[in-house]
């Protein structure tokens, strides 16, 4: 049973991805525009330490993040990490934090989990991933690039190009400005892609994916060599 979790690049510093690896999880780093971890089809997790939770509520980041998480994923989740009782020591306006968490659950349908520390967070993520990827419905695919609400052709173009490995919103826009159309990007040579991306490896990975034949694979069957998104990440 192979469990895969996508982690945002910024989570490397937290040490949690390494803890996940120690638990036998395959961790793939990516530039996630929404959430800190993607654990399954339509399912993603935002992680907040108690201090970050308090700060994000008062500087208005919390509801922006929760709103986008709920908008992009059908199963949005939040892990609050640390001693929740510390909130009363951090701020006199602790009721505002409680209200924010209640609103996240009621208004945005975000499931809230609590963990004692980073090690506990890794355990929670593992349990969620196990349940989601290998629950009653059997094996499920991880959908890193979930369906978003797109209002224009330009948004759709950016959305598609951002699905390329190691390509965030900045590089996606750069590629589209350079080549004009997605078709031109697909037809570009490795050297042309390298000039736009500034990275030979990224250029080679994208070039390879665009020209690889699709093969339906079983992620649990390690004996069969296959071409899938994970081969390029």
Automatic annotation (TrEMBL):
GO BP, sorted A to Z: double-strand break repair via homologous recombination; nucleotide-excision repair involved in interstrand cross-link repair
CDD domains noted in UniProt: XPF_nuclease_XPF_arch (cd20075)
Transmembrane segments: none
Key word DNA-binding present: yes
Keyword presence, Protease: no
Keywords: DNA damage, DNA repair, DNA-binding, Endonuclease, Hydrolase, Nuclease
Pfam family, one: ERCC4
GO MF assignments: damaged DNA binding; single-stranded DNA binding; single-stranded DNA endodeoxyribonuclease activity
Residue span, ERCC4 domain: 4-84
InterPro entries assigned to the protein according to its UniProt record, in alphabetical order: DNA_repair_endonuclease, ERCC4_domain, Restrct_endonuc-II-like, RuvA_2-like
NCBIfam families xrefs: Arch_Xpf_endonucase
Name of the protein: ERCC4 domain protein
Organism: Saccharolobus islandicus (strain L.S.2.15 / Lassen #1) (Sulfolobus islandicus)
């Amino acid at each position: 049973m192979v469990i895969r979790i996508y982690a945002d690049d910024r989570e490397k510093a937290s040490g949690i991805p390494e803890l996940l690896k120690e638990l036998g999880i395959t961790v793939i780093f990516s530039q996630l525009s929404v959430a800190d971890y993607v654990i399954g089809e339509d399912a993603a997790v935002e992680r907040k330490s108690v201090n970050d939770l308090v700060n994000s509520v008062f500087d208005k980041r919390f509801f922006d993040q929760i709103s986008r998480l709920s908008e992009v994923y059908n199963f949005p989740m939040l892990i609050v990490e640390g001693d929740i009782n510390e909130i009363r020591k951090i701020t006199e306006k602790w009721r505002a934090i409680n209200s924010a968490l209640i609103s996240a659950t009621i208004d945005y349908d975000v499931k809230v989990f609590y963990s004692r520390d980073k090690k506990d967070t890794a355990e929670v993520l593992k349990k969620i991933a196990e349940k989601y990827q290998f629950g009653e419905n059997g094996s499920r695919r991880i959908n890193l690039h979930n369906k978003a609400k797109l209002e224009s052709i330009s948004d759709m173009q950016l959305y598609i190009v951002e699905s390329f490995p190691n390509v965030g919103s900045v590089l996606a826009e750069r590629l589209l400005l350079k080549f004009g159309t997605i078709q031109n990007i697909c037809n570009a040579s490795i050297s042309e892609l390298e000039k736009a991306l500034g990275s030979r490896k990224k250029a080679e990975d994208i070039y390879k994916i665009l020209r690889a034949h699709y093969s339906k694979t079983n992620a649990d069957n390690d004996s069969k060599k296959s071409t899938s998104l994970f081969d390029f990440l």
